[in-house]
From TrEMBL:
Domain of life: Bacteria
Cleavable signal peptide: none
Species: Nocardia iowensis
GO molecular function: transaminase activity
Keywords recorded for this protein, A-Z: Aminotransferase, Pyridoxal phosphate, Transferase
Annotated family: Belongs to the class-III pyridoxal-phosphate-dependent aminotransferase family.
Pfam families: Aminotran_3
Protein name: Aspartate aminotransferase family protein
InterPro entries: Aminotrans_3, Aminotrans_3_PPA_site
Amino acid sequence: LTAARQAAARAYELDRRHVFHSWSAQAQIDPMTISASQGCYVWDGEGNRLLDFSSQLVNTNIGHQHPKVVAAVQQQAAKLCTVAPQHVNDARSEAARLIAERTPGELNKIFFTNGGAEAVEHAVRLARLHTGRHKVLARYRSYHGGTETAINLTGDPRRWPNDHGNSAVVHFFGPFLYRTQFHAGDESEETERALAHLEQTIAFEGPSTIAAIVLESIPGTAGIMIPPPGYLAGVRALCDKYGIIFIADEVMSGFGRTGKWFAIEHFEGVTPDLLTFAKGVNSGYVPLGGVAISPAIAATFDNRAYPGGLTYSGHPLATAAAVATITAMADEGIVENAAEIGARVLGPGLRELAEHHPSIGEVRGTGVFWALELVRDRATREPLAPYGGTSAAMTEVVAACRAAGLLMFVNFNRLHVVPPCIVSEAEAKEGLAILDRALTVADQHTS
Ligand code: PLP
Protein backbone atom coordinates (compact mmCIF):
# COMPACT_ATOMS: atom_id res chain seq x y z
CA LEU A 1 0.00 0.00 0.00
CA THR A 2 1.19 3.51 -0.79
CA ALA A 3 1.18 6.11 1.98
CA ALA A 4 -1.85 7.81 0.40
CA ARG A 5 -3.84 4.57 0.32
CA GLN A 6 -2.87 3.80 3.88
CA ALA A 7 -4.05 7.25 4.96
CA ALA A 8 -7.34 6.72 3.10
CA ALA A 9 -7.84 3.31 4.71
CA ARG A 10 -7.19 4.82 8.14
CA ALA A 11 -9.68 7.65 7.45
CA TYR A 12 -12.28 5.09 6.42
CA GLU A 13 -11.74 2.99 9.53
CA LEU A 14 -12.02 6.02 11.83
CA ASP A 15 -15.07 7.26 9.94
CA ARG A 16 -16.90 4.01 10.42
CA ARG A 17 -15.98 3.96 14.09
CA HIS A 18 -16.68 7.60 15.03
CA VAL A 19 -18.51 9.55 12.33
CA PHE A 20 -22.31 9.70 12.36
CA HIS A 21 -23.56 10.37 8.81
CA SER A 22 -26.45 12.49 7.52
CA TRP A 23 -29.74 10.83 6.46
CA SER A 24 -28.35 7.31 6.86
CA ALA A 25 -28.90 4.01 8.61
CA GLN A 26 -25.40 4.01 10.05
CA ALA A 27 -24.75 0.27 9.80
CA GLN A 28 -25.96 0.05 6.21
CA ILE A 29 -23.66 2.52 4.50
CA ASP A 30 -20.32 2.11 2.79
CA PRO A 31 -19.27 5.72 2.24
CA MET A 32 -16.84 6.57 -0.53
CA THR A 33 -13.59 8.22 0.49
CA ILE A 34 -12.50 11.31 -1.41
CA SER A 35 -8.86 12.07 -0.94
CA ALA A 36 -8.25 14.75 -3.56
CA SER A 37 -10.06 16.92 -6.08
CA GLN A 38 -9.29 19.26 -8.95
CA GLY A 39 -11.56 21.08 -11.37
CA CYS A 40 -14.33 18.65 -12.37
CA TYR A 41 -12.57 15.57 -10.95
CA VAL A 42 -12.24 13.84 -7.57
CA TRP A 43 -10.04 10.92 -6.51
CA ASP A 44 -11.28 8.10 -4.30
CA GLY A 45 -9.35 6.28 -1.57
CA GLU A 46 -7.85 3.81 -4.08
CA GLY A 47 -6.61 6.65 -6.24
CA ASN A 48 -9.27 6.22 -8.94
CA ARG A 49 -10.19 9.43 -10.75
CA LEU A 50 -13.89 10.19 -11.14
CA LEU A 51 -15.60 12.89 -13.18
CA ASP A 52 -17.79 14.74 -10.67
CA PHE A 53 -21.20 15.08 -12.32
CA SER A 54 -22.70 15.68 -8.86
CA SER A 55 -20.68 18.78 -7.88
CA GLN A 56 -20.75 16.98 -4.49
CA LEU A 57 -24.19 18.12 -3.25
CA VAL A 58 -24.62 20.40 -6.24
CA ASN A 59 -22.44 23.03 -4.63
CA THR A 60 -18.99 23.14 -6.28
CA ASN A 61 -20.19 25.47 -9.04
CA ILE A 62 -16.70 26.90 -9.60
CA GLY A 63 -15.15 23.43 -9.59
CA HIS A 64 -12.79 21.90 -7.09
CA GLN A 65 -9.71 23.73 -5.77
CA HIS A 66 -10.08 26.88 -7.84
CA PRO A 67 -6.68 28.55 -7.22
CA LYS A 68 -8.11 32.04 -6.68
CA VAL A 69 -10.59 30.85 -4.06
CA VAL A 70 -7.98 28.70 -2.32
CA ALA A 71 -5.61 31.69 -2.23
CA ALA A 72 -8.33 34.01 -0.91
CA VAL A 73 -9.09 31.64 1.98
CA GLN A 74 -5.38 31.29 2.74
CA GLN A 75 -4.82 35.05 2.66
CA GLN A 76 -7.87 35.74 4.80
CA ALA A 77 -6.75 33.09 7.31
CA ALA A 78 -3.35 34.75 7.56
CA LYS A 79 -4.94 38.19 7.98
CA LEU A 80 -7.99 37.65 10.22
CA CYS A 81 -9.73 34.34 10.80
CA THR A 82 -12.76 35.36 12.78
CA VAL A 83 -14.74 38.30 14.16
CA ALA A 84 -17.98 38.48 16.13
CA PRO A 85 -21.01 39.21 13.95
CA GLN A 86 -21.61 42.70 15.39
CA HIS A 87 -18.28 44.01 14.04
CA VAL A 88 -17.73 45.35 10.56
CA ASN A 89 -15.43 43.24 8.41
CA ASP A 90 -14.19 44.02 4.91
CA ALA A 91 -14.71 40.49 3.55
CA ARG A 92 -18.34 40.44 4.74
CA SER A 93 -19.05 43.97 3.45
CA GLU A 94 -17.62 43.20 0.03
CA ALA A 95 -19.41 39.85 -0.24
CA ALA A 96 -22.71 41.54 0.64
CA ARG A 97 -22.14 44.13 -2.09
CA LEU A 98 -21.28 41.53 -4.74
CA ILE A 99 -24.33 39.43 -3.84
CA ALA A 100 -26.72 42.40 -3.63
CA GLU A 101 -25.54 43.57 -7.07
CA ARG A 102 -26.62 40.23 -8.53
CA THR A 103 -29.86 39.46 -6.71
CA PRO A 104 -33.02 40.49 -8.60
CA GLY A 105 -34.88 43.75 -7.97
CA GLU A 106 -33.94 45.64 -4.85
CA LEU A 107 -33.00 42.74 -2.60
CA ASN A 108 -30.05 44.73 -1.36
CA LYS A 109 -29.61 43.72 2.29
CA ILE A 110 -27.91 40.43 3.07
CA PHE A 111 -28.19 38.39 6.26
CA PHE A 112 -25.46 35.76 6.32
CA THR A 113 -25.86 32.23 7.71
CA ASN A 114 -23.68 29.11 7.70
CA GLY A 115 -25.69 27.24 5.08
CA GLY A 116 -28.93 26.80 3.21
CA ALA A 117 -31.22 25.43 5.89
CA GLU A 118 -30.41 28.31 8.23
CA ALA A 119 -31.06 30.73 5.38
CA VAL A 120 -34.52 29.22 4.96
CA GLU A 121 -35.14 29.31 8.73
CA HIS A 122 -34.34 33.02 8.84
CA ALA A 123 -36.31 33.83 5.67
CA VAL A 124 -39.39 32.27 7.26
CA ARG A 125 -38.75 34.10 10.54
CA LEU A 126 -38.39 37.43 8.69
CA ALA A 127 -41.63 36.77 6.81
CA ARG A 128 -43.54 35.80 9.96
CA LEU A 129 -42.38 38.86 11.91
CA HIS A 130 -42.96 41.21 8.97
CA THR A 131 -46.51 40.00 8.30
CA GLY A 132 -47.53 39.04 11.83
CA ARG A 133 -48.87 35.78 10.34
CA HIS A 134 -47.67 32.25 11.07
CA LYS A 135 -48.53 29.77 8.29
CA VAL A 136 -46.17 28.99 5.42
CA LEU A 137 -47.07 27.28 2.16
CA ALA A 138 -44.54 25.04 0.40
CA ARG A 139 -44.83 22.56 -2.44
CA TYR A 140 -44.68 18.81 -2.47
CA ARG A 141 -41.60 17.65 -4.38
CA SER A 142 -39.23 20.16 -2.78
CA TYR A 143 -36.18 20.24 -0.53
CA HIS A 144 -35.45 23.15 1.80
CA GLY A 145 -32.93 21.80 4.32
CA GLY A 146 -32.48 19.63 7.38
CA THR A 147 -33.25 21.94 10.32
CA GLU A 148 -36.62 22.09 12.07
CA THR A 149 -38.51 24.61 9.94
CA ALA A 150 -36.66 23.77 6.74
CA ILE A 151 -37.31 20.04 6.94
CA ASN A 152 -40.98 20.67 7.65
CA LEU A 153 -41.18 22.89 4.57
CA THR A 154 -39.55 20.11 2.57
CA GLY A 155 -41.95 18.16 0.39
CA ASP A 156 -40.20 14.79 0.42
CA PRO A 157 -40.33 11.79 2.77
CA ARG A 158 -37.50 13.08 4.94
CA ARG A 159 -40.11 15.40 6.45
CA TRP A 160 -42.29 12.59 7.78
CA PRO A 161 -40.26 11.59 10.87
CA ASN A 162 -39.59 15.28 11.62
CA ASP A 163 -43.22 16.41 11.41
CA HIS A 164 -44.63 16.79 14.91
CA GLY A 165 -47.74 18.55 13.71
CA ASN A 166 -46.78 22.02 14.90
CA SER A 167 -44.81 23.45 11.99
CA ALA A 168 -47.62 25.64 10.58
CA VAL A 169 -46.57 24.48 7.11
CA VAL A 170 -49.17 23.55 4.49
CA HIS A 171 -48.13 21.74 1.32
CA PHE A 172 -49.61 22.17 -2.14
CA PHE A 173 -48.87 20.71 -5.58
CA GLY A 174 -46.64 22.66 -7.92
CA PRO A 175 -46.55 22.34 -11.68
CA PHE A 176 -44.90 19.17 -13.07
CA LEU A 177 -46.38 18.32 -16.43
CA TYR A 178 -44.71 14.91 -16.81
CA ARG A 179 -46.48 13.70 -13.67
CA THR A 180 -49.31 16.23 -13.67
CA GLN A 181 -51.65 16.36 -10.67
CA PHE A 182 -54.00 18.50 -12.71
CA HIS A 183 -54.76 16.24 -15.71
CA ALA A 184 -53.21 18.94 -17.85
CA GLY A 185 -52.37 18.28 -21.48
CA ASP A 186 -49.89 21.09 -22.00
CA GLU A 187 -47.84 23.67 -20.13
CA SER A 188 -50.41 26.44 -20.28
CA GLU A 189 -53.08 24.16 -18.78
CA GLU A 190 -50.59 23.04 -16.12
CA THR A 191 -49.83 26.68 -15.21
CA GLU A 192 -53.47 27.72 -15.10
CA ARG A 193 -54.61 24.73 -13.02
CA ALA A 194 -51.62 24.78 -10.65
CA LEU A 195 -52.31 28.46 -9.94
CA ALA A 196 -56.01 27.80 -9.40
CA HIS A 197 -55.07 25.00 -6.97
CA LEU A 198 -52.69 27.34 -5.11
CA GLU A 199 -55.28 30.10 -4.88
CA GLN A 200 -57.84 27.64 -3.57
CA THR A 201 -55.33 26.40 -0.98
CA ILE A 202 -54.81 30.02 0.12
CA ALA A 203 -58.58 30.60 0.31
CA PHE A 204 -59.21 27.43 2.33
CA GLU A 205 -56.27 27.99 4.70
CA GLY A 206 -57.23 31.62 5.25
CA PRO A 207 -55.19 34.33 3.52
CA SER A 208 -54.85 36.33 6.74
CA THR A 209 -53.00 33.39 8.38
CA ILE A 210 -50.37 32.92 5.64
CA ALA A 211 -47.00 34.63 6.08
CA ALA A 212 -45.15 33.21 3.11
CA ILE A 213 -45.04 30.93 0.10
CA VAL A 214 -41.66 29.23 -0.24
CA LEU A 215 -40.64 27.87 -3.63
CA GLU A 216 -37.39 26.76 -5.18
CA SER A 217 -37.25 28.90 -8.35
CA ILE A 218 -36.44 25.62 -10.10
CA PRO A 219 -36.87 22.65 -7.74
CA GLY A 220 -33.51 20.85 -7.46
CA THR A 221 -33.28 17.63 -5.45
CA ALA A 222 -36.98 16.97 -6.12
CA GLY A 223 -36.39 16.71 -9.85
CA ILE A 224 -35.37 19.91 -11.71
CA MET A 225 -38.89 20.69 -12.91
CA ILE A 226 -38.67 24.05 -14.68
CA PRO A 227 -41.88 25.96 -13.87
CA PRO A 228 -43.95 26.44 -17.03
CA PRO A 229 -44.31 29.96 -18.45
CA GLY A 230 -46.49 32.18 -16.28
CA TYR A 231 -46.41 30.06 -13.14
CA LEU A 232 -43.98 32.05 -11.01
CA ALA A 233 -45.48 35.33 -12.25
CA GLY A 234 -48.84 33.94 -11.15
CA VAL A 235 -47.45 33.06 -7.71
CA ARG A 236 -46.05 36.59 -7.44
CA ALA A 237 -49.49 38.01 -8.30
CA LEU A 238 -51.21 35.80 -5.69
CA CYS A 239 -48.68 36.90 -3.06
CA ASP A 240 -49.40 40.55 -3.91
CA LYS A 241 -53.16 39.99 -3.86
CA TYR A 242 -53.15 38.39 -0.40
CA GLY A 243 -50.24 40.20 1.28
CA ILE A 244 -48.11 37.04 1.37
CA ILE A 245 -44.29 37.11 1.26
CA PHE A 246 -42.74 35.29 -1.71
CA ILE A 247 -39.57 33.44 -0.67
CA ALA A 248 -37.48 32.10 -3.56
CA ASP A 249 -35.13 29.35 -2.38
CA GLU A 250 -32.08 29.58 -4.65
CA VAL A 251 -29.77 27.52 -2.45
CA MET A 252 -29.25 24.96 -5.21
CA SER A 253 -30.34 26.90 -8.29
CA GLY A 254 -28.35 30.07 -7.60
CA PHE A 255 -24.90 31.28 -8.59
CA GLY A 256 -24.65 30.03 -12.15
CA ARG A 257 -26.18 26.57 -11.87
CA THR A 258 -28.96 27.32 -14.40
CA GLY A 259 -26.81 29.43 -16.70
CA LYS A 260 -27.78 32.68 -14.99
CA TRP A 261 -26.72 34.09 -11.64
CA PHE A 262 -30.14 33.19 -10.23
CA ALA A 263 -32.77 30.85 -11.66
CA ILE A 264 -35.51 33.42 -11.06
CA GLU A 265 -33.96 35.49 -13.88
CA HIS A 266 -35.36 32.91 -16.32
CA PHE A 267 -38.81 34.22 -15.41
CA GLU A 268 -38.94 37.83 -16.54
CA GLY A 269 -40.34 40.39 -14.17
CA VAL A 270 -40.65 38.03 -11.18
CA THR A 271 -38.95 39.40 -8.06
CA PRO A 272 -39.29 37.59 -4.73
CA ASP A 273 -39.42 39.44 -1.41
CA LEU A 274 -36.75 37.20 0.09
CA LEU A 275 -34.18 35.05 -1.67
CA THR A 276 -32.17 32.34 0.06
CA PHE A 277 -28.74 31.24 -1.17
CA ALA A 278 -25.83 29.02 -0.06
CA LYS A 279 -23.83 26.33 -1.95
CA GLY A 280 -22.61 28.11 -5.13
CA VAL A 281 -22.13 31.47 -3.38
CA ASN A 282 -18.61 30.26 -2.55
CA SER A 283 -18.87 26.70 -3.87
CA GLY A 284 -18.79 25.40 -0.30
CA TYR A 285 -15.08 26.01 0.20
CA VAL A 286 -16.13 27.36 3.61
CA PRO A 287 -19.75 26.96 4.82
CA LEU A 288 -21.89 29.98 3.90
CA GLY A 289 -25.51 30.83 3.18
CA GLY A 290 -27.78 33.80 3.50
CA VAL A 291 -30.97 35.67 2.79
CA ALA A 292 -31.31 38.66 0.45
CA ILE A 293 -33.99 40.96 1.86
CA SER A 294 -36.37 43.45 0.19
CA PRO A 295 -36.36 47.08 1.35
CA ALA A 296 -39.88 46.74 2.81
CA ILE A 297 -38.97 43.74 4.96
CA ALA A 298 -35.61 45.23 5.95
CA ALA A 299 -37.43 48.42 7.04
CA THR A 300 -39.54 46.40 9.51
CA PHE A 301 -36.34 45.97 11.48
CA ASP A 302 -35.05 49.55 11.22
CA ASN A 303 -36.33 50.44 14.67
CA ARG A 304 -37.17 47.03 16.02
CA ALA A 305 -34.50 44.43 16.80
CA TYR A 306 -34.40 41.37 14.56
CA PRO A 307 -34.66 38.47 17.02
CA GLY A 308 -32.11 36.17 15.39
CA GLY A 309 -28.38 35.79 14.91
CA LEU A 310 -25.40 33.49 14.62
CA THR A 311 -21.89 33.64 16.07
CA TYR A 312 -20.55 33.08 12.54
CA SER A 313 -22.89 35.36 10.55
CA GLY A 314 -20.69 36.56 7.68
CA HIS A 315 -17.61 34.65 8.83
CA PRO A 316 -14.47 36.22 7.28
CA LEU A 317 -13.12 32.97 5.77
CA ALA A 318 -16.50 32.14 4.22
CA THR A 319 -17.18 35.62 2.90
CA ALA A 320 -13.62 36.01 1.58
CA ALA A 321 -14.23 32.77 -0.31
CA ALA A 322 -17.49 34.26 -1.65
CA VAL A 323 -15.75 37.43 -2.84
CA ALA A 324 -13.11 35.38 -4.66
CA THR A 325 -15.69 32.96 -6.08
CA ILE A 326 -18.07 35.61 -7.42
CA THR A 327 -15.18 37.66 -8.80
CA ALA A 328 -13.63 34.65 -10.55
CA MET A 329 -17.01 33.53 -11.88
CA ALA A 330 -17.55 36.99 -13.38
CA ASP A 331 -13.98 37.39 -14.72
CA GLU A 332 -13.83 33.92 -16.24
CA GLY A 333 -17.31 33.84 -17.79
CA ILE A 334 -18.28 30.81 -15.69
CA VAL A 335 -22.03 31.53 -15.65
CA GLU A 336 -21.95 31.98 -19.42
CA ASN A 337 -20.07 28.69 -19.72
CA ALA A 338 -22.81 26.89 -17.77
CA ALA A 339 -25.46 28.33 -20.12
CA GLU A 340 -23.45 27.46 -23.21
CA ILE A 341 -22.58 23.88 -22.19
CA GLY A 342 -26.21 23.28 -21.28
CA ALA A 343 -27.58 24.61 -24.54
CA ARG A 344 -24.96 23.17 -26.88
CA VAL A 345 -23.68 19.96 -25.24
CA LEU A 346 -25.63 18.61 -22.25
CA GLY A 347 -29.17 19.35 -23.43
CA PRO A 348 -28.73 17.95 -26.96
CA GLY A 349 -26.53 15.11 -25.66
CA LEU A 350 -29.04 13.97 -23.05
CA ARG A 351 -31.94 14.19 -25.52
CA GLU A 352 -29.94 12.04 -27.90
CA LEU A 353 -29.46 9.46 -25.13
CA ALA A 354 -33.24 9.47 -24.63
CA GLU A 355 -33.70 8.51 -28.27
CA HIS A 356 -32.04 5.13 -27.83
CA HIS A 357 -32.49 4.37 -24.12
CA PRO A 358 -36.06 3.27 -23.35
CA SER A 359 -35.35 3.75 -19.62
CA ILE A 360 -35.29 7.55 -20.06
CA GLY A 361 -38.81 8.85 -19.56
CA GLU A 362 -37.98 12.53 -19.66
CA VAL A 363 -34.96 14.83 -19.95
CA ARG A 364 -35.34 18.27 -18.40
CA GLY A 365 -33.13 21.12 -17.28
CA THR A 366 -31.06 24.12 -18.24
CA GLY A 367 -27.44 25.20 -17.79
CA VAL A 368 -25.63 22.54 -15.74
CA PHE A 369 -28.85 21.54 -13.98
CA TRP A 370 -30.38 18.44 -15.64
CA ALA A 371 -32.48 15.48 -14.56
CA LEU A 372 -33.08 12.15 -16.26
CA GLU A 373 -36.38 10.66 -15.17
CA LEU A 374 -35.81 6.89 -15.41
CA VAL A 375 -38.83 4.64 -15.96
CA ARG A 376 -39.66 0.96 -16.34
CA ASP A 377 -42.23 1.73 -18.97
CA ARG A 378 -42.40 4.84 -21.10
CA ALA A 379 -46.12 4.48 -21.69
CA THR A 380 -47.18 4.18 -18.05
CA ARG A 381 -44.25 6.31 -16.79
CA GLU A 382 -43.79 3.84 -13.93
CA PRO A 383 -40.61 5.08 -12.20
CA LEU A 384 -37.49 2.89 -12.07
CA ALA A 385 -37.59 3.28 -8.26
CA PRO A 386 -40.67 4.12 -6.21
CA TYR A 387 -41.27 7.63 -4.85
CA GLY A 388 -39.17 7.94 -1.68
CA GLY A 389 -37.26 4.73 -2.34
CA THR A 390 -34.57 3.06 -4.39
CA SER A 391 -34.35 -0.12 -6.44
CA ALA A 392 -31.81 -2.68 -7.62
CA ALA A 393 -32.03 -1.12 -11.07
CA MET A 394 -31.10 2.36 -9.82
CA THR A 395 -28.29 1.00 -7.65
CA GLU A 396 -26.88 -0.91 -10.63
CA VAL A 397 -26.91 2.12 -12.95
CA VAL A 398 -25.16 4.30 -10.40
CA ALA A 399 -22.59 1.55 -9.74
CA ALA A 400 -21.98 1.21 -13.48
CA CYS A 401 -21.33 4.96 -13.68
CA ARG A 402 -18.97 4.83 -10.73
CA ALA A 403 -17.06 1.81 -12.09
CA ALA A 404 -16.55 3.71 -15.34
CA GLY A 405 -15.30 6.83 -13.53
CA LEU A 406 -18.43 8.98 -13.21
CA LEU A 407 -19.91 10.29 -9.95
CA MET A 408 -23.66 10.96 -10.19
CA PHE A 409 -26.30 12.68 -8.04
CA VAL A 410 -29.24 10.33 -7.50
CA ASN A 411 -32.71 10.83 -6.04
CA PHE A 412 -35.30 8.02 -6.15
CA ASN A 413 -35.73 7.19 -9.88
CA ARG A 414 -33.69 10.12 -11.17
CA LEU A 415 -30.11 10.73 -12.21
CA HIS A 416 -29.13 14.38 -12.03
CA VAL A 417 -26.48 15.69 -14.38
CA VAL A 418 -25.12 18.58 -12.35
CA PRO A 419 -21.39 19.07 -13.05
CA PRO A 420 -19.52 22.22 -11.99
CA CYS A 421 -20.33 25.33 -14.05
CA ILE A 422 -16.73 25.26 -15.34
CA VAL A 423 -17.26 21.90 -17.08
CA SER A 424 -15.63 21.84 -20.53
CA GLU A 425 -17.19 20.44 -23.68
CA ALA A 426 -14.76 17.50 -23.58
CA GLU A 427 -15.61 16.70 -19.95
CA ALA A 428 -19.34 16.96 -20.60
CA LYS A 429 -18.96 14.57 -23.54
CA GLU A 430 -16.83 12.20 -21.48
CA GLY A 431 -19.64 12.03 -18.89
CA LEU A 432 -22.33 11.60 -21.55
CA ALA A 433 -20.40 8.67 -23.07
CA ILE A 434 -20.18 6.93 -19.67
CA LEU A 435 -23.88 7.57 -19.06
CA ASP A 436 -24.67 6.10 -22.46
CA ARG A 437 -23.01 2.82 -21.52
CA ALA A 438 -24.39 2.76 -17.94
CA LEU A 439 -27.96 3.34 -19.11
CA THR A 440 -27.95 0.01 -20.96
CA VAL A 441 -28.13 -1.46 -17.43
CA ALA A 442 -31.33 0.52 -16.78
CA ASP A 443 -32.75 -0.45 -20.16
CA GLN A 444 -32.63 -4.11 -19.09
CA HIS A 445 -35.19 -3.29 -16.39
CA THR A 446 -37.73 -1.82 -18.81
CA SER A 447 -40.73 -3.69 -20.10
N1 PLP B 1 -32.66 24.66 -0.03
C1 PLP B 1 -32.39 23.99 -1.16
C2 PLP B 1 -33.14 24.30 -2.40
C3 PLP B 1 -31.41 23.00 -1.16
O1 PLP B 1 -31.15 22.31 -2.28
C4 PLP B 1 -30.70 22.73 0.04
C5 PLP B 1 -29.65 21.68 0.08
O2 PLP B 1 -29.56 20.83 -0.77
C6 PLP B 1 -31.02 23.46 1.18
C7 PLP B 1 -32.00 24.43 1.11
C8 PLP B 1 -30.29 23.22 2.49
O3 PLP B 1 -29.01 23.68 2.42
P1 PLP B 1 -27.90 23.18 3.48
O4 PLP B 1 -27.73 21.72 3.24
O5 PLP B 1 -26.70 24.03 3.16
O6 PLP B 1 -28.44 23.47 4.84
